[in-house]
Amino acid sequence: MTVQRTCLLLLGTLTLASCGQQAGMPAASAPTTDTAPAAATPTNLDSAQLAALRARIAQMQSLQADVQAGRVPAPVDDAGKAIDLNQLILDLQADLREGLSPRPLPAAQPGAGLSAQAAPYALSTYTTIAATNTFRSRYWTLRGAFPRFNWGNDGCSGPAGYTGWSDEFFWPCVQHDFGYRNARFYPSRMNEADRHWIDGQFKQHMQAVCDTLGWRKPFCYVAAQAFYTAVYLRGGSSYY
């Protein structure tokens, strides 16, 4: 479309599209990640994600104490196998350390071989959508506001032993595909550190799904770790 329109899109409290631009044009000022720290160098996870991660750790530690005291039975997976709560807690604590690590801001300008016009929207618009915690509820609004991004996806196929979680993790998988497929518009992001940042966001978005599943949480967290490990180790060919 070439018709003038007024568009306003909020991610949390952030404005992604500016008013009075032509349809499909990049926003005049791009947002930062939802609830991102105000520091000049943000951390790998935003403040809301860090708070949720700390809550998961505390909850699993409490569950482990209850199991050890005999107050509740040990949680099991769908095959009846007991879940290693100690390893699960160690994995979540490793996520917290990684999430607290400073994340250097990439260069805003396009790199060699890519003109400024080739990138469909500002880099910060891409990173906001890749990281937002409200991707599912705003998906169609985002697609309408930023049509020149690549919105294709492969759905969600789980690693061996965890394929039953593909339905629960569908939307984190779609968001992960968005992160991978649009990173190539920004040469400064074509590196393993940025690929693994997208993988880390994927894990947090899966764990947020797990947070809604009641007594299934421990096994869901284990499944999320398996999905994450699969893309971390074997996702390079899809990213570059």
SSE map:
Elements: E1 9-11, E2 14-17, H1 47-68, H2 85-100, H3 123-131, H4 135-145, H5 170-183, H6 192-210, H7 217-234, H8 236-239
Antiparallel strand pairs: 1-2
How would you describe the overall organization of this protein?
This protein has 240 residues and is an all-alpha fold. The chain has one domain. Helices cover 47% and strands 3% of the residues. It contains eight helices and two strands; from the N terminus they run ββαααααααα. It has helices at residues 47-68, 85-100, 123-131, 135-145, 170-183, 192-210, 217-234, 236-239; strands at residues 9-11, 14-17. Strands 1-2 form a two-stranded antiparallel ribbon. It is globular. Residues 1-33 and 109-114 have low confidence and may be disordered.
Characteristic key phrases:
about 240 residues, 8 helices, phospholipase A2 activity, signal, PLipase_A2_prok/fun, mainly alpha
The biggest beta sheet is recorded as: 2 strands, antiparallel
> Rounded to an integer, what's the Rg over CA atoms?
19 Å
Structural class: mainly alpha
Strand/helix succession:
EEHHHHHHHH
- The overall pLDDT, averaged over residues, is 83
Number of domains: 1
Q: Order of strands side by side in the largest beta sheet?
A: 1-2
Tell me, briefly, the overall form: globular
Tell me how many strands there are. 2
Low-confidence blocks of residues: 1-33, 109-114
Fraction in beta strands: under 5%
Keywords: Signal
Protein name: Phospholipase
GO molecular function, one term: phospholipase A2 activity
InterPro entries: PLipase_A2_dom_sf, PLipase_A2_prok/fun
